[in-house]
Design brief:
CATH class of the largest domain: Alpha Beta
Strand content: 5-15%
Radius of gyration: 17 Å
Oligomer: single chain
Structural class: mainly alpha
Shape: globular
Number of strands: 3
CATH architecture of the largest domain: 3-Layer(bab) Sandwich
Largest sheet: 3 strands, antiparallel
């Protein structure tokens, strides 16, 4: 891949929950920078031309001289690509992942409450994930900066970006309001596909 993929929808399609200006800056500036720096970091290595997911799953094999750059920028590229794909308005909470969430947390509201609580614990910049762990169980985890859950064997199926650039234009310092709004734009169809691919 020589160019960053475009968003799979228009910049304003997540309004009013995420505003158009944030989406433009988030994708065209922040994500583009991660992509460019990742491509530069792997240039000339055996990982040049490989999928970012494969690279992050084999970080220990990446040359030490570029490993931090690959982890940070490859993580930023992979995470944002993942994030765009699980966002969409007006999809229903249903299917196997809904059943699995309900089995574990009892109700969707209980899941939302715990997810929000954990996301609010991220100190500084990072992400909150719903993953399938090595016991094939659902788990909510935080990662700092652009550290990736796939680098430690977890399979992500849902994520929220809690770096300030993801929400500050609209929500300022009100991260809790942003997280609440996020639940209105989860593409449960995409989450279902990701969940089923882990089973």
């Amino acid at each position: 891949m020589s160019e960053l993929e475009k968003l799979p929808y228009s910049y304003n399609s997540l309004e009013p929950f995420i505003d158009e200006e944030t989406m433009k800056i988030h994708h065209d500036k922040h994500h583009q920078a991660y992509f460019d720096k990742f491509m530069n970091a792997i240039q000339g290595t055996e990982f040049e031309g490989k999928d970012v997911m494969d690279v992050l799953q084999n970080l220990n094999k990446v040359p030490e001289s570029v490993r931090t750059a690959v982890k940070n920028n490859g993580g930023g590229h992979y995470h944002h690509s993942f994030f765009w794909k699980i966002l969409q308005k007006d999809t229903s909470f249903s299917g196997p992942v809904a059943d699995a969430i309900t089995r574990k947390w009892g109700t969707l509201d209980a899941f939302k409450e715990e997810f929000k609580t954990i996301a609010l614990r991220v100190f500084g910049s990072g992400w909150t994930w719903l993953v399938v762990n090595d016991k094939n169980e659902l788990e909510i985890v935080n990662t700092s900066n652009q550290d990736s859950p796939i680098s430690v064997g977890k399979k992500p199926i849902l994520a929220i970006d809690v770096w300030e650039h993801a929400y500050y234009l609209k929500y300022q310092n009100k991260r809790a309001d942003y997280i609440t709004a996020f639940f209105n734009i989860i593409n449960w169809n995409a989450v279902n596909e990701l969940y089923q691919s882990t089973q």
